[in-house]
Every structure is written in C-alpha cells, then in structure tokens.
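4.2 Preliminary Data

To establish feasibility before requesting continued support, the project team ran the inverse folding procedure on a target of 72 residues. The structure was first converted into the token representation described in Section 3, and no sequence information of any kind was made available to the design step. The complete token record follows.
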C-alpha cells in the first residue's frame, strides 16, 4: 500500500515543474518514497499501457476497443 507521503512528493514535482519527457512522473515520486521510507512491491508479467499523454491515452482506448469488439 502506498503511503500518503506520495502526494507530497508528487506535489513537489508539480510545484517545481520537474518533468521527464514532458510529464510529471509517478515513478520518480515512487522511487523517492522507496529511498526515504522503503516499501515492498511485486513483479508481474503483462502488458503496460501508458495514458500519461492524450495521444497515448487515445492509443490505449483504441487497443481496448479493438479487444472488446473481438470478444477478447
């Protein structure tokens, strides 16, 4: 479970306009939280869909709409 401090770390990124590849990164905040407080995670097999930018979001919606119409 994520700790509430993640919101402070994300806010700091936004206030200081710390972007990577044009986006505020949850992964950057997660890494800081891991370094400062530690946490446990699990590795999972699967496909990741990026919805951080409008173009990627539309691509993801298109992929899922194709899967839905094909009965997958």
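Position-by-position output of the design step:
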């Amino acid at each position: 479970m994520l700790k509430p401090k993640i919101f402070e770390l994300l806010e700091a990124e936004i206030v200081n306009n710390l972007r990577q590849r044009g986006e505020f990164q949850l992964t950057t905040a997660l890494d800081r939280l891991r370094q400062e407080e530690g946490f446990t995670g699990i590795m999972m097999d699967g496909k990741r869909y990026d919805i951080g930018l409008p173009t990627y979001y539309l691509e993801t919606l298109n992929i899922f709409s194709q899967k839905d119409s094909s009965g997958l």
